[in-house]
Specification:
The structure holds two protein chains of two kinds. In chain A, 0% of the residues lie in helices and 50% in strands. Chain A is mainly β. In chain A, the strands form two sheets. In chain A, strands 2, 4, 5, 6, 9, 10 and 11 form a seven-stranded mixed beta sheet that branches. In chain A, strands 1-3-8-7 form a four-stranded antiparallel beta sheet, with no helix packed on it. The radius of gyration of chain A is 13 Å and the shape is globular. Chain B is mainly β. Helices cover 0% and strands 44% of the residues of chain B. Chain B contains no helices and eleven strands. Chain B starts with a strand and ends with a strand. Classes of the chains: A mainly beta, B mainly beta. Chains A and B meet through strand 4, strand 5, strand 9 and strand 10 of A and strand 5, strand 6 and strand 10 of B.
């Protein structure tokens, strides 16, 4: 069964550095999402992406964040200048349609030092 | 704004006992409700959605619009049901599928 894959599984970065989290969605899916989960808190929506543009974003997704689908298969989340509070598990998800079930990756644990 | 509340952070039952994981939501429109499950060291995966009205692994959930609830039930819990369960909501109608999650409930089924 096809799966969403995320790399790396764990990323450790110094505060202020840029970080790129990578995701390969399921190949025939058209809707892509990033969520994050700070330790002990709920899973929070960050951004949705459709037709090569952001379709919705949360208030968390400020100017430090950006997403890109550079080559038709990868879907990346970039944090330009990381802060301690960016430490979290980041989940990528994809779906065939906006109301189709979303399939999640295993997540990338981001630790900011 | 939409919100999902799962009042129980932890729920413990014995094998064979009935289990109910509570979920309440607030949203002014017509939402779509989901239950996602995360087994130990596995990814989040869809368990069921209210529009399918199906039973998966013996679990059912009924959307009660009057009580704004979507409780997950199973009449006889099994040890392999032990996992983290998340209730989630997305706006019906025109939307891009953003999911709003509850805090999650850790279910432990004892032998």
């Amino acid at each position: 069964e096809p799966e969403v894959t995320q790399t790396p599984s764990h990323q450790v970065t110094q505060m202020g550095q840029e970080v790129i989290l990578r995701c390969v969605p399921i190949s025939n899916h058209l809707y892509f999402y990033w969520y994050r989960q700070i330790l002990g808190q709920k899973v929070e929506f960050l951004v949705s992406f459709y037709n090569n543009e952001i379709s919705e974003k949360s208030e968390i997704f400020d100017d430090q964040f950006s997403v890109e689908r550079p080559d038709g298969s990868n879907f990346t989340l970039k944090i330009r200048s990381t802060k301690l509070e960016d430490s979290a598990m980041y989940f990528c998800a994809s779906g065939q349609g906006s109301h189709q079930p979303q399939h999640f990756g295993d997540g990338t644990r981001l630790s900011i030092l | 704004a939409q919100r999902v509340t799962q009042p129980e952070k932890l729920l413990s039952v014995f094998k064979g006992a009935p289990v109910e994981l509570k979920c309440n939501y607030s949203y002014s429109g017509s939402p779509e409700l989901f239950w996602y499950v995360q087994y130990s060291r596995q990814r989040l995966q869809l368990l069921l959605r209210h529009i399918s009205r199906e039973s998966i692994k013996g679990f059912t959930a009924d959307l009660n619009k009057g009580e704004t609830s979507f409780h997950l039930k199973k009449p006889f819990a099994q040890e392999e049901d032990s996992a983290m369960y998340y209730c989630a909501l997305t706006k019906g109608g025109t939307s891009y599928g953003k999911l709003t999650f509850g805090q999650g409930t850790i279910l432990t089924v004892h032998p």
